[in-house]
Specification:
The protein has a domain of 243 residues: FAD/NAD(P)-binding domain. The termini are far apart. Strands 1, 2, 8, 9, 10, 11, 17 and 18 form an eight-stranded mixed beta sheet that branches. An eight-stranded mixed beta sheet has the order 6-5-13-14-15-12-16-19, sandwiched between helices. Strands 3-7-4 form a three-stranded antiparallel beta sheet. It is globular, with a radius of gyration of 21 Å. With 405 residues, the protein is of the alpha+beta class. It binds flavin-adenine dinucleotide. Flavin-adenine dinucleotide (FAD) binds next to α1, β3, β12 and α8.
Length: 405
């Protein structure tokens, strides 16, 4: 049996679920398909390995679509300061929320917590059918009447098919949208640990020629450490026993980390830069990692995905209000125009960081030191950089805009 929908979203990860919430309560009939429901959250359970730094702009969007309370009532860690340095911590550049009259720069949240809060929110909307767990068997893209066949035999017909199905997006492939991509010669080794220091309000990053070392605070005495390194080194480090790995962390991470009491979990992630050649077509749109994957060193991947959500929802809600064909290329191109160049700029910025910092070439070393001291000393530059990192400077879609800044 075929069921017809205005919009079918494939992928109920953070981005797809947020988009469904943003369209909840509208007159669109929506189906969202997710392969796997996340494990439930229990207070006091160990922190997950996958965490994200959510910007203030993402927080605003999540508030506006009704999911933020579900995050903070579970578990999150606000951070007020952000510190970056290269050789010596004494020469670090510090970005402080207080200096720009803000209470915080962002929150570190486990991805599962964000996803759970979003799924809980979207289930409250009667115009949304949440189909989970369900995997797509086949996706037949056709402008304005795509068919999504599920493994359990159900068939969904979509006027607008939305791919929020991650980097390997089957929606993107079925619509014949190409990508440009390359693998970074770097991977992220992530460790969830408990430290001798109690909860901290700072996230820091030290740049080294083999890649950055990053600290992200979590609630209690927990922290997430990210050790970027070449694939060979990551393989070697990952093969160490837990106690050898702890020794390696102590030897490599700066002393401000303090003592690590316990290693709870570790894992590694290959890093890829990937960009869809277009985000839309007649009856199809991509959002989040299905459209773009960026180096995570500045923690922006899902944040730009959430800005896609805010913009795409705005365009679709406007189209409904105006009586426009919501799935037409003409309507959807407003979304692409607003987001693709913004995301490209963010990708290029991350690439510049990656190339300028991941080596020991003298002229680049000079450039880095000049860059850091300029960022630290120019009175006007720092507030701008701080606000940019918070996502509150630059073009911001309405749903992610704070009313009082
Ligand atoms: C080491 C690391 C650290 C990071 N840190 C940060 C950070 O601090 N801040 C930040 O903003 N970003 C960060 N990111 C990036 C962030 O994790 C991603 O951008 C984000 O998870 C993308 O979300 P998404 O919903 O677009 O895609 P995904 O998380 O990939 O979700 C896709 C969903 O679609 C479902 N799905 C896929 N195919 C199908 C199908 N055929 N049928 C049904 N369901 C399907 C999957 O089950 C999944 O739930 C980091 C990434 C890495 C690797």
């Amino acid at each position: 049996m075929k069921t017809e929908y205005d919009i079918v979203i494939v992928g109920g990860g953070m981005v797809g679920a947020a988009l469904a919430c943003a369209l909840g309560g509208s007159r669109y009939q929506i189906a969202i398909i997710e392969g796997q429901y996340p494990d439930s959250f229990e207070t006091g359970q160990p922190h997950d390995l996958r965490v994200s730094a959510l910007s203030v702009a993402s927080e605003t969007l999540l508030k506006n679509i009704g999911a933020w309370e579900g995050i903070v009532s579970r578990r999150s860690c606000p951070y007020r300061r952000m510190k970056v340095w290269e050789a010596k911590e004494a020469h670090a550049t510090l970005f402080d929320a207080e200096n720009i009259g803000e209470t915080h720069l962002g929150h570190i949240v486990e991805n599962r917590v964000t996803q759970l809060a979003l799924l809980e929110t979207l289930k409250q909307h009667s115009n949304i059918d949440f189909i989970c767990p369900a995997k797509t068997k086949q996706i037949d893209y056709s402008a304005g009447s795509s068919i999504v066949s599920l493994e359990d035999g159900r068939e969904l017909v979509a006027r607008l098919l939305i791919g929020a199905d991650g980097g390997e997006s089957r929606v993107r492939q079925s619509a014949g949208i190409g990508i440009t991509k390359w693998d970074y010669n770097q991977q992220a080794l992530v460790a969830s640990v408990t430290t001798s220091y109690p909860q901290q309000d700072i996230t820091w990053q030290q740049f080294t020629p083999s890649g950055p070392l990053a600290f992200l605070p979590l609630s209690g005495q927990n922290a997430s450490l990210v050790w970027y390194n070449t694939p060979d080194q990551v393989k070697r480090l990952n093969a160490l026993s837990d106690s050898q790995f702890l020794d390696a962390l102590h030897q490599t991470f700066p002393s401000c980390l303090g003592r690590i009491d316990q290693l709870l979990e570790r894992g590694y992630f290959p890093l890829r830069r990937q960009h869809a050649q277009r985000y839309i077509g007649e009856g199809v749109a991509l959002a989040g990692d299905s459209a773009h994957m960026i180096h995570p060193l500045a923690g922006q991947g899902v944040n730009i995905g959430f800005m896609d959500v805010a913009m795409l929802a705005e365009v679709l809600l406007d189209a409904q209000a105006q009586g426009d064909r919501f799935y037409s290329t003409e309507t959807l191109s407003q979304y692409e125009q607003a987001r693709r160049n913004q995301n490209l700029l963010m990708m290029q910025t991350m690439d510049a960081f990656y190339h300028v910092f991941s080596n020991d070439i003298l002229p680049l070393k000079f450039l880095r030191n000049v860059g850091f001291s300029l960022a630290d000393k120019l009175p006007l530059a720092k507030p701008h950089i701080t606000r940019y990192a918070m996502g509150v400077e630059g073009p911001i879609p309405s749903l992610a805009k704070r009313l009082h800044v």
